[in-house]
């Protein structure tokens, strides 16, 4: 099956109207269909009569008036034609009457058409979200049957629309990742509100993009506490919606206390808005204003907006049970499990088979990989014939072969009624759309929240498992292991401050570690060893099993720290009882010894929600999580927007793109003349000068590409050249205030918007220009370098040459100075160099005592004073009370390829190092 993207909203609305009327007023739809057939027949008959008449006239010979046969034929034709014309007139009138009756049901048909397009557009967020019109029609017809009947048409329509909307939401949520479910709800709410004229495209565009101007406003923010970007957004908001926000800037400037009180509130979205804005704004306009002040509350505010617009059930996704999935499945359609880290549908499928007494001998598994293609097809043939369940695991490893599977599925005519095909796959853009559209898609994710995670773990531990090991410490250590397992999974929720790379810690890790505990404790008990072999357990669990998945050194450091915090004789200390985390509301501790139910009851008493502090993170991690969630939502919403229309005060999209292109062109400087610069330095050049020349070459490549792509785009906009996919990407990016992909490839990593990136770009040029025409900067702005680590390597090389040290036995260490800004530094470093523009995340900095301190509430990042980097011989380096802090290019930190880490800084600390390790402390060269 191929999805037909040519279907239009109006065309689908008419198609769904026929479906509704056929269900609600069958006789009316049948009458309409008969009328259409009769009208078609009558029109054909009229055409035949005209043709016959013309033929008679053409074949007539002699005087027509003397031809009595011809005159009679003409008379008969005229009579028939008159009859047919009368029938057509009557048919047209009847059709009008029928259409009036049918149009009564049009609101429900329009709702259905809008909902299908919302569902279909989700594929631009993730290619696995594919839905065919035929599968949607099944949901549509099911909703007609399930909606409550009512004699009043308006009430009946309301019932149909409510049932359809909720069924479509449930249907979509089954195959959508948790992180996209609120986006899906919001998209439904906003599209329906736009259809009713309650939200304009201008309002929505501003909410998604904010102020995308390249130039910063001359009107400066009035208060230090006001977010810089938020003030720029306010200025743009006044231009976009002058009727509602015309006096906003003056209102803010004159009423600092009111706005500050609202801004400082933990939940400003649910408080009274200051001044007239409480009563004068729509629900959506409140969201728009909140964007200017508190991005970290947008995610929660969107939940509130959806709840007010459509009801609470649209922010509480359905719980997906395997029984429900099985009930919805059919032998002819595969069930596709879209995997996420930590999920394992295979064990749940085995349990489902047991519960419904399907028989374990009729359940077959095959893990896909190279060379398994023929075996898979043999298994499929057997399963189809004998009514078995077949699960093909990790299908993303053999995407090409799935084309063959698709052909086999198309040939299925009468499979055994018990047959089911279950596929598991990670999201992959090349997965065949045909299989996705005909399948029932189910996203499997581990439980969300510490309590649910622990509950899930103990649900899989049998009642006798805790008594299998004779050692008295075994039940308590099983709980510690379960808590650790939940913590490492929940930490993933907080993004890069949790883990640099999202790991697939799953049930099998826990199961094997439980066996390790059993083996080692049983051995200790048999040998009458009093001491628990902590070192062996910590190494096998933290370094081998869980640490074996962690490919990042700093992530492994976090795992080791958890092992040190959770495992040791101290957890059994009766004088100083052990707590994983405790405050006035909750106590996460090891329950009293007893059977499995003791532990289950304790878990049931834990709160559903937990703060980041339980995992050793700062409460600010929650703010960081919600801020990133809002940014991710906006990026996804940009993908869902029609790339037409104006966001720019009435001018067309093309005019706006042309204007931005010209603004950027005006800011692009001339390339550096590398030949002249090389001659200036001569043959004896220092390692840092080599770095400069490499940097300039890369910068010139970027300048060339920017200039060339913008000039070609301007020609394409006026029709002089064709628009290529590359140019289309540039145009789309400029329209949305983003950096085009072809520029991004030639520039240092960044998460900035186009406007902020251009400020960064101009500052880079100034640093290079000063370095070429004056001297090497006395304070290096590392963020301005394409490959900053190459400069630090050159620094070590230069020092080794000067002092005669062996290069492989030299290293760097750092010291934070008391200078807050680069301008404060009056002389060049005698040894090493000074660098600035480093931002501290996960901790604060005490400038007076020069050491790490806990973050201030709501302050996620803090600029570090000027840092001194000093090369030294490794054997002479003896540092105490310092925390090895990774320095990354952006807040995205390091990816799975190891890209992003620049160096490690030594920051002084008075707290234990484990505190900063679990808080995810790092330095970055750029803010977002």
UniProtKB/TrEMBL annotation:
Its main location: cytoplasm. InterPro entries: AAA_9, AAA_lid_11, AAA_lid_11_sf, DHC, Dynein_C, Dynein_C_barrel, Dynein_heavy_D6_P-loop, P-loop_NTPase. GO terms for cellular component: axoneme; dynein complex; microtubule. The keyword Isomerase does not apply. Residues 21-87 form a coiled coil. Pfam families: AAA_9, AAA_lid_11, Dynein_C, Dynein_heavy. The keyword Transmembrane helix does not apply. Keywords: ATP-binding, Cell projection, Cilium, Coiled coil, Cytoplasm, Cytoskeleton, Dynein, Microtubule, Motor protein, Nucleotide-binding. Residues 331-443 form the Dynein heavy chain region D6 P-loop domain. PANTHER family: DYNEIN AXONEMAL HEAVY CHAIN 10, DYNEIN HEAVY CHAIN 6, AXONEMAL-LIKE-RELATED. Belongs to the dynein heavy chain family. This is Dynein heavy chain, axonemal. It comes from Mytilus galloprovincialis (Mediterranean mussel).
